[in-house]
Automatic annotation (TrEMBL):
Domain of life, source organism: Bacteria
Compartments, as annotated in UniProt: Membrane
Family matches, as PROSITE patterns: PROKAR_LIPOPROTEIN
Transmembrane segments: 20-41, 48-69, 101-134, 146-165, 171-191, 242-259, 271-289
Predominant localisation class: membrane
Gene3D superfamilies xrefs: UbiA prenyltransferase
InterPro entries with a match to the protein in the record: UbiA_prenyltransferase (IPR000537), UbiA_sf (IPR044878)
Keyword Ribonucleoprotein: no
Protein name (Swiss-Prot/TrEMBL): UbiA family prenyltransferase
Source organism of this protein record: Streptomyces argenteolus
Pfam family, one: UbiA
Membrane-topology annotation of the record: Multi-pass membrane protein
Amino acid sequence: MDTTDRLASQASTVRLPHPLTGLLLSCHPGPVAAVTVLAAALGVSSGLTTGCVALVASAVLAGQLSVGWCNDAFDARRDADAARPGKPVARGTVGAGTVWGAAFTALAVCAVLSLACGAAAGSAHLAGVLAAWAYNLRLKETVLSWLPYAAGFGSLPCLVALSLPGRPWPAWWAVAAGALLGVAAHLGDVLPDIEADLRAGIRGLPQRWGEARTRRLLPLPLVAATAVLVLGPPAGGGPGPVPVLCAAALCTVVLATAFAAPRPVRTWRKAALAGTVAVAAADVALLLARGTSIA
């Protein structure tokens, strides 16, 4: 049975949601919301006016919608072949053409809103969004699969800083921390699907490493981001010692759980995952706490 027949069979045997619901679900709403909230929070913490925060958040929202729709439309056939759940285009809930149209429309809206923040801010953000499109269309299958995530997350502090009065350049440590968080996001996003990706012929960097090695290396960019956020800003420009000590303790725990291998393995893996999530949360909190000095 080919892909078309499989989609038709699924549509005839499973009650599919409304196409509009499918369109909304195919944008990857979780990551879209998370990145948009992060950009808005960074704008607030850096001192942007309410109007500028709304503009930045809207530009990021449009960009993330375009990336999510591009991903699902481009991967529809591959997702159908792998029978992946939660993929509305692959299930036939909404047509690939509709999703492609939404992706390009969102990209155009993103361009307008981003450039409304200023030429430099808009260009930096659009570079990150276009890198994400490049990931969807080609780079996810190469050893450079991590690069679009680094560029995309690194562009967020650039967008916020260059939207401030005077259009100041973003601090190097803010861009570096964002890029490192992006690399960690890439590893964490790909980790559950490595085996399926390999069967589909996708050989990005995590797929080449394999599940076990990727799981062990995932904490490293998070720990590096913590170090950059603690040591990078000028003295007196950051949070007090308590959050710094907490972040250092979390880094120690997650490194210990990731690289040691006692039994039972399942319990240890859950501990490593929990520690990784905790370090990621601490890094985001540190980044937001440093917001007033990102430029």
